[in-house]
């Protein structure tokens, strides 16, 4: 694991810089931003929660950077860290930067009253995330930090492999469904799909473990 981190040192630094990009953009737009900036939006795409400009510009990117560092520290401490392959680690490395960049850009756009359809852009982002993660899940070997960490998957490597193969297929299909619902303008159903995508691998892993116990 440490060798993988040393090999990706430049990528680690780049990921932190990308996380902090919204801070630079916020400073550039500082005088144009309102004192209260929208940070949450309802299903109708309208803002329903606000935060101070300083917190949005400085606090949110710094929180995401702290989360990135925490994820790295936890991953380094993983007793099974040697099982983390380069591609899943790269995906893990870029989740926080992409979320920070997406949220920062959308927040500033809405604060400046730009004609951005938050539901459309957010749905596309979410659907693509599930598609990408779904393709990587079957490649994840058993670890305590990367993958679907359930009591049954962590206790049994066969359960881990079965659950991740199934979840990879389900999440890939789910990503396509979320994209379709995005274009159909059905954001409420997207939350139902996400719940299903979480429940199916969890239930399948539990049932697989029960079957193994009865043999």
TrEMBL record:
It comes from the Bacteria. Keywords: Membrane, Transmembrane, Transmembrane helix. Residues 17-64 form the DUF1648 domain. Pfam families: DUF1648, SdpI. The chain crosses the membrane at residues 12-30, 50-77, 89-108, 120-137, 166-184, 190-209. GO terms for biological process: response to toxic substance. InterPro entries: DUF1648 (IPR012867), SdpI (IPR026272), SdpI/YhfL (IPR025962). The keyword Transmembrane helix applies. This is DUF1648 domain-containing protein. The lineage of its organism: Bacteria, Bacillati, Bacillota, Clostridia, Eubacteriales.
